[in-house]
Design a protein that fits this description.
about 425 residues, Rossmann fold, five-stranded parallel beta sheet, 17 helices
Length: about 425
């Protein structure tokens, strides 16, 4: 059997499931000391430290003078990438941009009868740094991550975007990555990976301007660096391993369900794929399909370990019970592979992204449809949301009160201040209406 089978009858059964799934939560504290040293080194030595780490782990000829990608490299990459691939990327860009345009926020104001004006001013951050993993020595860069992080920042109105990505052994970056950056109009690209790339974005160097917000996925060193720098800079989120939960009824195709589970299991050994179903026969057919399809994948060993350790088929006696466990898991990706998904949508309270019906598999959202694929994991969908335009915006309160307001309410404000023992606060108000 490629994954465990669990019978779920109600909330009393969830403690064991929660304890099992919590084993995927690795905050990376065992690498904190190493990452702290890297952050301090980059802060002290800047470009030379980045080049030194790059020579050690990525490209043994990298120098401080060659950290930045020149615009002619992006132009050359655009000619190197097949036209059909560029067309697909441009179409994905259009879809993603159209979706995020709907997330724009406006400043607003309200005027009171006494002339007081209150409001909220919405402005983008000045600078954003994006981390893009190279993937398998730079051969499979996460193009979709660049799209999903850069486009919301651009829609928010961010004027300065810096991309860092680890170089390949020959010192270049993958041409598809460079071509995508060119399509997006991003020109500030740096050859820097891992924790030192994050440190460069946060602290700045001789040639890299520090940013206000850092976004983008990465390995445990990237994630730890972002966590340790939170507060100095804003970050998108602390993301854990990828995960999918599928709620299916008898109308679902077991071959499709198995393929969808494997689409997450192939990410890495800590990825989780869970099927929740009310149909015992379907559960058995999916297990058979998983065993068969697993052998056909290039990443068989990774997917097999993921399914073995963190995969499950959970059977329930009703859709009500099934939606209960889905909400308790609060998955990153949720597929409603049921005959009438819209009838269930109102029952779903906690999920990063929800895929409706039999023809909306998770990769549709990962790459092309438009909604963001940077999503909360490890149950954090209970209180957090997908990366969005709001990730790159700030909201400033605006208060404009008339003399009459301060005179009419000054005694109340001063009293509240004195209740907190803050005499200077009270006097600040009183001096404006004292005669």
């Amino acid at each position: 059997m490629p994954c465990r089978k669990i019978a779920y009858c109600g909330p009393e059964d969830f403690d064991g499931i929660r304890q099992w799934l919590s084993g995927r939560d690795n905050p990376g504290h065992d690498v904190d000391a190493l990452v702290l040293d890297i952050l301090a080194d980059v802060r002290e030595r800047g470009d030379e430290a980045i080049a030194e780490y790059g020579r050690k782990f990525d490209c043994d000829t990298l120098t401080a003078e060659h950290l930045h990608v020149h615009h002619h490299e992006c132009e050359a990459a655009l000619r190197e990438v097949p036209a059909e691939d560029l067309a697909i990327i441009r179409e994905a860009v259009a879809n993603i941009r159209a979706f995020h345009e709907r997330q724009k926020e406006n400043s607003w104001w309200t005027t009171q009868a006494d002339g007081t004006i209150l409001g909220q001013m919405v402005t983008p951050v000045d600078r954003v740094g994006l981390y893009v993993p190279g993937g398998q020595g730079g051969q499979t860069p996460l193009i979709s991550s660049l799209l999903m992080n850069a486009i919301p920042a651009q829609v928010a109105g961010v004027q300065n975007i810096t991309v860092v990505s680890p170089p390949r052994p020959d010192g270049t970056l993958n041409p598809t990555l460079l071509a995508t950056a060119h399509i997006l109009g991003i020109t500030d690209i740096v050859r820097a990976g891992s924790a030192w790339g994050i440190a460069a974005l946060a602290h700045g160097t001789q040639t890299i301007t520090p940013v206000d917000v850092i976004a983008g996925p990465g390995n445990i060193f990237v994630t730890t660096a972002k966590r340790l720098l939170t507060g100095r800079v804003g970050i998108d989120m602390i993301a854990g391993p990828s995960e999918i939960t599928i709620l299916a009824d008898a109308s679902a195709d077991p071959e499709w369900l198995a393929a969808d589970m494997l689409s997450q299991a192939e990410h890495d050994a800590l990825a989780s794929a869970v099927l929740v179903t009310t149909d015992e026969g379907l559960a058995g057919r999916v297990r058979e399909a998983l065993s068969r399809q697993l052998q056909e994948l290039p990443r068989t060993e990774i997917a097999a370990q993921s399914l073995r350790d963190w995969g499950a088929i959970i059977t329930c006696d009703s859709l009500e019970t099934a939606t209960d466990i889905v909400n308790r898991i609060a998955p990153e990706h949720l597929e409603l592979a049921v005959d009438d998904p819209w009838s269930l949508l109102g029952r779903i309270r906690h999920a990063g992204a929800i895929f409706m019906g039999h023809h909306a598999p998770e990769p549709v959202g990962d790459y092309f449809a438009g909604p963001n694929h940077v999503l909360p994991t490890l149950g954090t969908a209970r209180f957090s949301s997908a990366l969005s335009v709001q990730t790159f915006l700030k909201r400033s309160s605006v208060i404009a009160t008339q003399p009459s307001f301060t005179a009419a309410h000054g005694n109340k404000i001063a009293r509240l201040a004195r209740l907190e023992g803050l005499e200077a606060h009270a006097r600040s108000v009183e001096k404006r209406f004292a005669k």
